Amino acid sequence: MNPMQRMAAHARQSGVALQHCTACSHVQYPPRELCVACLADQLEWRIAPSEAGVLLATSLLHHSHADEFRDALPLRVGVVQLDAGPSVICFLDANCVVATRVRITARNDAEGRAVLSAAPV
Amino acid sequence: MMDYGDIAVCTPVTVAYARRSEHGAAWWLGSALRKLLEASGLAKRQVDGLCLSSFTLPPDGPAPFVQYVGLSPRFLEYLPTGGACGVMALRRAARAVQCGDADVVACIAGDTNGDTTFHDLVAQFSSFSRDCVWPYGAGGPNESFALLTDHAMRRTGATRADFGKLCVAQRQWAQRNPLALLRSELTLEAYLAARPVASPLHLFDCVMPCAGADGFLVMHRDRAMALSLPHARILATIERHNAYPDDPIQWRGGWAMDADTLWQQAAIGPDAIDVLQTYDDYPVISMLQFEDMGFCAKDAGAEFIRSNAFGPGGNRPHNTGGGQLSGGQAGAAGGFLGMVEAIRQLTGQAGERYVPGARHALVSGFGMINYDRGLCTAAAVLAA
Fold first, then answer.
1. For B296-321, what is each residue's pLDDT tens digit?
2. Of the residues B76, B191, B351, B374, which has the fewest C-beta atoms closer than 10 A?
3. Are B96 and B49 in contact (CB under 8 A)?
């Protein structure tokens, strides 16, 4: 199972899974097989029902390259800087406001992928 | 840093872009090579170096390509770095010639565009983008750049009209460039009234994917003069990848790390630049380049746009061929568009869009939007 598949499995069972490095404590996203900071491969999953952060930017998507999304347009997406460190691209609840705090949760989409969504705190 | 001495950059060629093509990438790249030979008078065997960039060449790579076109180079570079590949090719070609690893280096970038090419490229662009961007609506680069644009508008106070001013000026240049794909008049009113694609981006903020190829040659100045080829010189270059990885969102590019080095090496400053060719896959990226390369202070990009004129006859001629926004984005050739236009301007080959007295040009590139940011930045100062 690659790191993205593991994140999806954690999303199915427990919530938001972020990799953290047991060698240097760095927390990273997107998932990968090495620590981006120290290149160690001793990564563990830090799993929580949700992660908090600040919304940095938003977009309302009116066009998609994939049929699976066309009926759902327009879709609201954003960039959230997590308190844990990394920034994530995620779906946004309609009430999320830039520069305010939000809470990220994880789920599996129809393809089984891990996807993140933000809602106001 | 070692200067570029007597290196000549010459023979800008373009294989006329097309909205769609049934040709393979090798046809586009090979046609650019043929045009380089025709324009220079060189025989194929005299081209002993090649710098190649393409997204749609796979499964072929650079070695299968040289067999495809019958070249036997002793220097071969493959630069799959998108918008930064033009400056990167220039740097590598110039050093190869200086060091004697090659006598004549052909730099070529191009891509085809079939019915599903762009979709396929976006869906499988990289592992991070496939796993952590595509599942969020599959907006492709529009989505990533919409987020960067939203942030930049909040940071600088830039409005849609500011970005529209850049787009309208580029369309005015494109109307003087027979090679630009989009040449019908674009007014600010039409720009503002266009349909939303990924807010705050609307239709005219987004490049049109197309097929095409561009190329140029790098050789010793003596060789260029012997061949009677008008040529430009290289004053300075910079390159940086994955700059500022800890920025939570990309509000500056690698140019900001290296601009001082660039201007120091060039021994001129931004005010001495007669023609400015920024990488314009979206207008916000041009604004970032204005800021990060010192044409204005950081966060002053919007004010810089408002207080300068970028079109024909303006004080700050910018993307004088129309850029990608009016010319089309032919994949990797987008990384060459500013380079061939700068060479044309400096060598009197820019036709009716020639900027009188153009002596210095800045070409900058920006490539590979991956996950949340563009990774590759590069720039070159060229002189007539």
1. 999 999 999 999 999 999 999 999 99
2. B351
3. yes
d(CA B342, CA B364): 10
Question: Rounded distance, CA B147 to CA B243, Å?
Answer: 18
Instruction: Give me A65's structure tokens.
Output: 């390259």
* B6 reaches A (C-beta below 8 A): no
Chain B interface includes A24 (CB < 8 A): no
Q: Which of A30, A62, A115 sits opposite B198 (nearest CB)?
A: A62
* Chain A residues lying within 8 Å of B248, measured CB to CB: 56, 79, 81, 87
Chain B interface, best mutation among A1, A56, A63, A116, by max B CB count within 10 A: A63
Residues in chain A with CB shorter than 8 Å from the CB of B133 are 89
pLDDT tens for each residue of B224-243: 999 999 999 999 999 999 99
Q: What is the pTM of this model?
A: 0.97
ipTM confidence? 0.97
In order of B148, B219, B248, B300, the CA distances from A83 in angstroms are 20, 52, 11, 29
From the CB of residue B70, how many other CB atoms can be counted at a distance below 10 Å?
10
